[in-house]
Design goal:
The complex is a heterodimer of chains A (437) and B (378).
Chain A: H1 2-12, H2 17-38, E1 58-59, E2 63-64, E3 67-74, H3 81-100, E4 108-115, H4 120-130, E5 136-140, H5 143-157, E6 160-163, H6 183-197, E7 205-211, H7 214-230, E8 233-239, H8 247-256, E9 260-264, H9 267-279, E10 286-288, H10 303-309, E11 310-314, H11 324-336, H12 344-365, E12 368-369, H13 371-379, E13 384-385, E14 391-392, E15 405-410, E16 418-425, H14 428-432
Parallel strand pairs in A: 1-12, 3-4, 3-5, 5-6, 7-8, 7-9, 9-10, 10-11
Antiparallel strand pairs in A: 2-3, 11-15, 13-14, 15-16
Helix pairs in contact in A: 1-2, 3-12, 4-5, 6-7, 8-9, 9-10, 12-13
Chain B: H1 2-17, H2 21-45, H3 48-73, H4 81-96, H5 110-127, H6 129-132, H7 137-157, H8 159-162, E1 168-169, E2 174-175, E3 178-179, E4 185-187, E5 190-192, H9 194-218, H10 220-230, H11 232-237, H12 242-268, E6 270-271, H13 278-291, H14 296-315, H15 333-351, H16 355-372
Antiparallel strand pairs in B: 1-6, 2-3, 4-5
Helix pairs in contact in B: 1-2, 2-9, 3-9, 3-12, 3-13, 3-14, 4-5, 4-7, 4-12, 5-12, 9-10, 9-12, 10-12, 13-14, 13-16, 14-15, 14-16
Classes of the chains: A alpha/beta (437), B mainly alpha (378).
Chain lengths: 437, 378
């Protein structure tokens, strides 16, 4: 071999390291050339053959043999760990039941789950890792991360992604589909509830305590819109996710003389806000977005105050709803995960998984299980009801799949800790609202 | 490949058979050559996931070299590294974007924007120099900590500049007519997307940064920096302008961070404020402690370790022992990755004082001394 000769010759050459370096560089160049030639055999090299259609079925990424693989990018070790766990377990349950019932026209469905712990780097690389091997994503927690890979999803991947986030900024893509009403619509419905049933009227001031970031700011868009429509004034209180003590906010809102408070934050902030307001004799109705409650709160000191004065607007009926679907889900979930608590993350996960499942079934019926086929199938679903109160219409990517909200009230005697006080419905303002973007 | 094996055998045999010094030098040169070839060939074989992981590691390495100049070589603790990364990343976006998405954008050529973003990061470091020149050690650490919080507040709220919580898109870099975006170019039948193209840009940047930092560390400034770290007063007596050197190395370190930020932004294709938090600053400190304080190779090794380990653990979480599938009892994969990462950090700090490269250097020194004084214990 030529190179071996050269290596042998090298042994004999004078030992100055400069000479060594030059020779090594030459050798490196030789090896590099060989590597470039070899690259042609790389498994990454393009092969132009389309996937053979088995039984007339068109398939693409994420399907091998008789298995459909779906991805789930969740958070089970970061700030949304409780939500992520419920959502994921509900989806695993859905997939298990789907497969037990024969799968999607003979195809078994499999979930590949990656826990990103709400870390942008892990979330993006999780997407990069799973994307080539999955048909789509039934779950993607963290709207900043969805936004980070949006260009790739819309540009070349074209895979269906169902984010577990309800910000209107995610609307507009035919591939990223928010399930249920977005935060702005939910807040409009919440304020509508306060006006209709809690005595809020034109000219009143309304407090809005919200998280900085996507969720809170989108909710604020809703309350500002409603204020303009109904002649209210919004008193804003922006907080950070790490602010747990709401004493200052309560004092400020009390001083401003607000007649009701909207809360777009987390469960901890809800407990503090409601508890502090009650303790200081500030008895105004408080309504939160769906993320601003957890059943565990009812066991805390704020429990009685929450049950008295607190409401939650939600895109679907709660887990403890009185429908056969909800009852079955509760029974199955309890059987599968006896130690875990029941919350609305289960409903969210279940709803997303069944929407995806429905799209798969439709795509399968039209013999096209490619990503394009699934996207098209979802666009053709315009009245999908999973038994949680609201019907979903996926035919317009620019609009939320539902404009309806259910108003709930904490109650410790009900499964999941929430009972319905107003059934699903969209206020007039919500029906006429178009998100500005 | 067989030659490589042959060389490795030669390396192993060398000390025992008492061959000359040169035999020991040569394997190193060969190892370098093989490493370079492998690095150049990776985009042809590895998945996008691995290339992205590698690019994160390269960006981290550039940032870590910067903080190692400051903390490792000069003894100035900085907790604000994440802030300067953010300045680089967002600076690039603001300078290069064309304003098409409704956010502020100056529409400069992207290569110029990248260079300017690094200078802006340096400028930000310069503005901080009245503080960085006067404070030392832990005091500077606390002062720079404030930068991270101020920076994140701005990132979340200066919507026109930063796009708020969801961040803003990063315009792809174009250089000499080559655009580092996802439009595929076939090279030897392998489709080259953004990760493959950026890989080479990252390698070039990392090599340049490493060589420059090595030059600084081995020259007069490096000796002055070490003198400041080891004995500030003695350094002043020797005629080293302490405050000026501290400020200058802070600016240089900020520029390294800025460049790392630009590269990260290009890899992410989107800048997100969540990323540039206090944990990122701590990660960078962990990198140089694990890799080895005060050296370029230490920074690179530490950066590779810290940024690749969690990725690898998460990726293979399914197959690791003791880890249960999500949804069942036991340790979740994400948690397991953190435990292992934490354990690795503790083990390195306990058993490898001087970090990963410190261990290598010590071993080399030991074998060398054994060679020169054959009677000594090894």
């Amino acid at each position: 071999m030529n190179r071996t000769n050269r290596a042998n010759r090298m042994n004999r050459v004078n030992r100055a390291s400069r000479v060594n370096g030059a020779l090594a560089a030459r050798a490196a160049a030789g090896v590099l050339a060989a590597a470039l030639v070899l690259a042609g055999c790389s498994s990454k090299a393009k092969d132009d053959g389309d996937k053979a259609a088995a039984g007339g079925m068109k398939t693409g990424e994420g399907i091998s043999g008789k298995t459909i693989t779906l991805g789930a990018l969740t958070d089970m070790s970061g700030v949304y760990a409780t939500l992520g766990k419920s959502v994921t377990q509900a989806q695993q349950l859905y997939v298990k039941q789907l497969n037990a019932a024969g799968g999607v026209c003979g195809y078994k469905v499999e979930l590949t789950i990656r826990d990103h712990g709400y870390d942008p780097q892990k979330a993006v690389s999780g997407y990069t890792e799973l994307e080539p091997n999955v048909l789509g994503f039934v779950q993607f927690i963290g709207s900043p991360f969805v936004a980070a890979v949006k260009k790739r999803i819309d540009g070349q991947d074209k895979d269906l992604v169902l984010p577990q986030a309800w910000s209107a900024t995610l609307l507009g893509s035919p591939y990223i589909r928010v399930i249920g009403s977005t935060y702005d619509l939910e807040t409009i419905n919440a304020v509508d509830f306060l006006m209709r049933e809690k005595g809020l009227k034109k000219g009143d001031r309304i407090g809005h305590v919200y998280f900085e970031g996507d969720y809170g700011e989108n909710a604020l868009v809703g309350s500002e819109h409603m204020a303009k429509e109904a002649g209210l004034t919004v008193v804003q209180q922006k907080i950070k996710a790490t602010d747990n003590d709401m004493t200052a906010q309560v004092a400020a809102l009390k001083k401003a003389g607000v007649k009701a408070i909207v809360l777009s934050a987390g469960p901890r902030q809800a407990a503090s806000l409601v508890g502090v307001a009650a303790a200081s004799g500030f008895n105004v109705p408080i309504i939160g977005n769906n993320s601003a409650f957890a059943p565990q709160l009812l066991a805390t000191e704020a429990g009685p105050a929450l049950m008295k004065n607190y409401y939650v607007a939600s895109p679907s009926l709660p887990i403890g709803a009185d429908t056969p679907e909800a009852k079955k889900l509760v029974a199955d979930y309890k059987a599968a995960y006896p130690k875990d608590s029941l919350d609305n993350g289960i409903v969210a996960g279940w709803t997303a998984a069944s929407a995806f499942g429905e799209a798969l079934k439709k795509a399968c019926a039209s013999k096209d299980l490619t990503r394009e086929g699934v996207d098209k199938a979802l666009l053709s679903i315009d009245s999908f009801d999973m038994g949680f109160g609201t019907t979903q219409d996926f035919s317009d990517p620019a609009a939320a799949s539902s404009r309806e909200s259910v108003i709930l009230k904490p109650d410790k005697n009900v499964t999941g800790g929430m009972k319905v006080v107003r059934q699903a419905g969209a206020s007039k303002a919500a029906q006429e609202y178009t998100p500005a973007s | 490949m067989s030659e490589v094996l042959h060389r490795d055998e030669a390396r192993e045999r060398a000390p025992r058979s008492g061959l000359h010094r040169i035999r020991l030098v040569r394997p190193r040169v060969w190892a370098w050559a093989v490493a370079v070839v492998l690095l150049l060939a990776f985009p042809f074989y590895l998945d996008r996931f691995w290339l992205e992981a590698g690019l994160f590691a390269m960006a981290a390495a550039i940032g870590a070299i910067g903080i190692n100049l400051l903390t490792g070589a000069t003894g100035q603790l900085s907790m604000g590294h994440a802030f300067f990364l953010a300045v680089g990343a967002y600076g690039y976006c603001v300078l290069a974007a064309d304003g098409g998405d409704g956010l502020t954008g100056l529409g400069l050529p992207t290569w110029l924007a990248a260079v300017l973003a690094v200078l802006v990061a340096g400028l930000a470091g310069g503005l901080f120099s009245p503080i960085s020149g006067r404070l030392s050690g832990a005091y500077l650490g606390i002062a720079t900590l404030a930068l991270v919080f101020i920076g994140q507040h701005i990132m979340f709220n200066a919507h026109d500049l930063t796009g708020g919580a969801n961040g803003r898109d990063v315009p792809p870099l174009s250089l000499f007519g080559l655009t580092f975006d996802d439009r595929e170019i076939d090279v030897a039948a392998v489709p080259f997307g953004s990760a493959e193209k950026l890989w080479y840009a990252g390698l070039v940047l990392l090599a340049a940064c490493a060589l420059f930092a090595r030059g600084v560390l081995r020259g007069r400034p490096g000796r002055a920096m070490n003198a400041i770290r080891d004995h500030r007063i003695a350094a002043g007596v020797l005629g080293v302008p302490v405050a000026r050197h501290r400020a200058a190395v802070f600016v240089l370190s900020s520029m390294y961070a800025g460049l790392a930020g630009v590269l990260l932004a290009l890899v992410f294709q989107r800048t997100v404020p969540d990323y540039f938090g206090i944990t990122l600053s701590l990660d960078y400190l962990a990198m140089i402690v694990i890799g080895g304080l005060g050296s370029v190779s230490g920074a690179v090794a530490g950066a590779a370790f810290v940024s690749l380990l969690p990725q690898v653990l998460t990726r293979y979480s399914d197959t690791l022992p003791l880890v249960s599938a999500p949804g069942t009892d036991g340790i979740a994969p994400g948690e397991a990755a953190r435990y292992l990462y934490g354990a690795a950090v503790v083990l390195v700090v306990l058993f490898l004082p001087g970090g990963l490269t410190g261990a290598v250097v010590r071993r080399r020194a030991r074998t060398r001394s054994a060679r020169t004084h054959p009677g000594e214990e090894r």
